[in-house]
Amino acid sequence: QAKKSAAEAQLNSAQNAMQNAQVQYNRELWNPRVYNPRPMAGMGMPSMFDGFFENNEMMPGSSGGNKSIERHADLVTQGTQVSSARSHVTEAESGLRAINAKLRDTKAIAPFDGVIMKKMVEIGDTVQPGQPLIIFSYSKYLRIQAEVPARLMPGLKKGMVVPARLDVGNTLINARVAQISPVADKRQHTVTVKFDLPEGVPGGPGMYAEVMIPDVGAPSRALPVVPIAAIHKKGSLPSVQVLDEENKPKMRLVRIGEVVDEDSVTILSGLRPGEKILVRSRN
């Protein structure tokens, strides 16, 4: 702040000097010095006689200079002083801008509201321009970032919607593909994909989520799809109630596959297509 105050004072002084130089130039332009009689205080002689003796051009044989040349020289001198003063103002402004830039570097202003995920510096640390200070997350609109195996990439396109499961309350939602990295990881053979989540979903930055991505390269087979409300979970083994030939419900263990949408899921084993099941009412 002390250097900034000194720079502001220097700029103010340079501006005053430029203003004074401009005034002197204008005075010389409209009221030339060589054409105005200078007052002579000695001897009490009238000014008209002073002008007579000072005007060498009126005296025969005089070796006096040309007033036009003298006036041109005076204008050039005053113009040079104006240019010099303007250069000093520009220099002072540049110095003040440099100081303001350094002062701005001392403040880290977030471009949006969010949550600090990770702090990389501590109070008293010396930092340089461009050095990462924190990892900041935008918490209003959330995204899932997933490392997708390269073999599954043919089944993903920007803008498509895929089912996802959040760690908070085992919530099932639809996620939209927002960004696909053009470069794959050479070591893990994965591609970074970002999925946009609907506004207002539970959870926050740093939480765990699962994304169901279709494997278009896998051999296709018909799998039964049942409502999620039909799944009974006792312990870690899911089951469904299947109606036999006498329409009596019997509990049968099943293996759950991919989530089709918010209300349905595929069954990998334990249930054949065409069998009837019981679905629990939501009321």
Chain-wise SSE layout:
Blueprint: H1 2-30, H2 47-54, H3 67-105, E1 115-119, E2 134-137, E3 143-149, E4 161-166, E5 172-184, E6 190-196, E7 209-211, E8 225-227, E9 232-234, E10 237-243, E11 249-253, E12 255-259, E13 264-269
Antiparallel strand pairs: 1-2, 3-6, 4-5, 4-7, 5-6, 8-13, 9-10, 10-11, 12-13
Structure report:
The chain has four domains: 2-105, no CATH class; 109-140, no CATH class; 142-211, Elongation Factor Tu (Ef-tu), domain 3; 225-269, no CATH class. Helix 1 runs antiparallel to helix 3. Mean pLDDT is 79; it is low at 41-45 and 47-63. It is 27% helix and 26% strand. By secondary structure, it is α+β, with helices and mostly antiparallel strands. The chain is rod-shaped. A five-stranded antiparallel sheet has the order 3-6-5-4-7, with no helix packed on it. A three-stranded antiparallel sheet has the order 8-13-12, with no helix packed on it. Strands 9-10-11 form a three-stranded antiparallel sheet, with no helix packed on it.
Q: What's the short version?
A:
With 283 residues, this protein is of the alpha+beta class.
